[in-house]
Design brief:
D-amino Acid Aminotransferase, Chain A, domain 2; about 280 residues; alpha+beta
Length: about 280
């Protein structure tokens, strides 16, 4: 795998050992779909990165250089996944942030393999998301809550080997998202998605679907999800993923999910067929 690492604007062999991202998770990241050599929704990803940088009061590297290096990784026109990690930079021991150039890294990855985009099986995660409005929405590098949630698959007391993904709730109990995706539910002919103002990530694909589906953002309970007419997950790499099961509740394929997928495909050719993202 070809990984490109930079300290400021200079390319280096590896992340510095005193990098604040390694020490404290003091940084941001974006995971982007690459279709036919083109990074998808670049402007939206960079805008979210800028929002995160303002929240963390850190300086981003130059967008022009990052985009040029990203394009070079897929100059052969191939598809895949591009991950960008930007940290505050290098610094000594201690939490006080220093005024240093950002460290950043670009890495290409193959597309994920999904069993079926229409037949996902979900479970409820015991791990909760802490309420922290200062970090809500942004994609910061501290993802330990998601790591703990996914590790539940390895705990014999909580194992559900048939589950593809897990749904996470906040510390207050409202449903927020899946471990690595946003959640949409259909109730009374209307699409709803959880508010992301106290915790969770404002996904790029979620943002596209808010307008496409005339979605209403709301606080959702466990009952709201389990009694929904249809459910799907989405993220910027896999697009829309239909849900067939959540615990004991099952759903057949729903025409509203198929319609949502067609609408998404109209604005993004990478999601035009299952084969292109499976």
């Amino acid at each position: 795998m070809s990984v490109r690492v930079f300290a400021g604007s200079q390319r280096v062999d590896a992340m510095p050992v005193d990098d604040r991202g390694l020490a404290y998770g003091d940084g941001l990241f974006e995971t982007m779909l690459v279709h036919a050599g083109q990074v998808s929704w670049w402007d939206a990803h960079w805008t979210r990165l800028q929002c995160g940088a303002r929240r963390l009061r850190m300086v981003l590297p130059g967008q022009g250089q990052v985009r040029s290096e990203a394009d070079a990784l897929f100059a052969d026109g191939a598809g895949g996944v591009l991950k960008l990690i930007v940290t505050r930079g290098s610094g000594g021991r201690g939490y006080a942030p220093a005024d240093t150039p950002a460290n950043w890294m670009l890495s290409p990855h193959p597309l994920p393999i999904t069993r079926s985009r229409d037949r996902l099986s979900l479970r409820w995660c015991a791990t909760r998301l802490a309420t922290q409005p200062a970090l809500a929405g942004i994609k910061h590098c501290n993802r330990l809550e998601q790591v703990l949630a996914r590790a539940e698959w390895n705990d014999p007391a909580m194992a559900d080997t048939g589950a593809d993904e897990g749904l996470m709730r906040s510390s207050e109990g409202d449903v927020v998202c899946a471990i690595a995706a946003n959640l949409f539910v259909l109730r009374d002919g209307r699409w709803l998605t959880p508010k992301i103002d106290r915790c969770g990530v404002e996904g790029i694909c979620r943002g596209q679907l808010l307008a496409l589906l005339e979605t209403h953002e709301a606080r959702l309970s466990v009952a709201d999800v389990e009694t929904a007419d249809a459910v799907f997950l989405c993220n910027a790499v896999r697009g829309i993923l239909g849900v067939a099961r959540l615990g004991e509740r099952t759903w057949p394929s729903h025409p509203a999910v198929a319609q949502a997928r067609r609408l998404l495909a109209r604005i993004h050719p990478g999601f035009a067929t299952d084969a292109e993202i499976s």
